[in-house]
Amino acid sequence: MRPTPETARATTDSPAGAPTRRGKVWLVGAGPGDPDLLTVKAARILRQADVWLVDDLVGADIHALAAPGTRIVKVGKRGGCRSTPQDFILRLMARYARQGRSVARVKGGDPFIFGRGGEELQWLAARGIDAEAVAGITAGLAAGAALGLPLTHRGLSRGVALVTAHTMDDTRPDWRVLAASGLTLVCYMGMRDAGTLARELQEAGFAADTPVAVAHRVSCPEQRHIVTRLDRMAADIVQAGLSSPAVIVIGPAVSLIDAAAQPAAFAMVA
């Protein structure tokens, strides 16, 4: 029988020399939102964990996997919104693990793709706390299947690059290198200032008529997306009423989206 939180506390407080339960932190990638896209391992860990520390983007259907008695703590982190301080989240993970709990740090997407998973793993290791990451499907990759958009395609795209348009120090990727690379570009956190992003990409060498897809809430029931071109991207995002969380896919492969395959979610901007 899986130990309950109360059992975990009792074993941790056992007299000296008695066996104790060792806590562990799992950095669980919960995928883009559709519970069917969880890995088998992620679902198993979530069912067994005593404590969940959950990001805002983790869907309600995934919450339903929690066993009765699981402590669920919401530690929302959303771009552009008020977020739980990262230091507080770290201390929560350490506190529960030291109580002998199995702790699931539940993140949207993959913990190691713009999810601070590497920082958290290093922080926990430096304090002697057992931790392990569980891979998840990141929204930038899920967007391909969700939209019928091959992120790589012979003759159009020799690879794909996942990048962020927003960093703590306001630096940017080397857009010129990416423009010359022949890669499909999947941009996270680009919705806050899509106009600046579009201008920078064109100045770096991306053609004004480069196809662009903007996908909001990939794989979720409320998924919406538009297809446009780079020079009209910012205006079309506003016209369509799209907002974060969303990914922006840029490159010739976007032209392969099959509108007929996605009638409920698809909107073509002329």
Automatic annotation (TrEMBL):
GO molecular function: uroporphyrin-III C-methyltransferase activity
Pathway as given in its UniProt record: Porphyrin-containing compound metabolism; siroheme biosynthesis; precorrin-2 from uroporphyrinogen III: step 1/1
EC number(s) given by UniProt: 2.1.1.107
Assigned keywords, A-Z: Methyltransferase, Porphyrin biosynthesis, S-adenosyl-L-methionine, Transferase
Protein origin, superkingdom: Bacteria
UniProt xrefs under Pfam families: TP_methylase
Tetrapyrrole methylase domain: residues covered: 24-232
InterPro entries linked: 4pyrrol_Mease, 4pyrrol_Methylase_sf, 4pyrrole_Mease_sub1, 4pyrrole_Mease_sub2, CobA/CysG_C, Siro_Cobalamin_biosynth, Uropor_MeTrfase_CS
GO biological processes: methylation; siroheme biosynthetic process
PROSITE patterns in the cross-refs: SUMT_1 (PS00839)
Segments for region (Disordered): 1-22
Gene3D superfamilies, A to Z: Cobalt-precorrin-4 Transmethylase, Domain 1, Methyltransferase, Cobalt-precorrin-4 Transmethylase, Domain 2
UniProt cross-references to PANTHER family, sorted A to Z: S-ADENOSYL-L-METHIONINE-DEPENDENT UROPORPHYRINOGEN III METHYLTRANSFERASE, CHLOROPLASTIC (PTHR45790:SF3), SIROHEME SYNTHASE-RELATED (PTHR45790)
Family membership noted in the UniProt record: Belongs to the precorrin methyltransferase family.
Name of this chain's protein: uroporphyrinogen-III C-methyltransferase
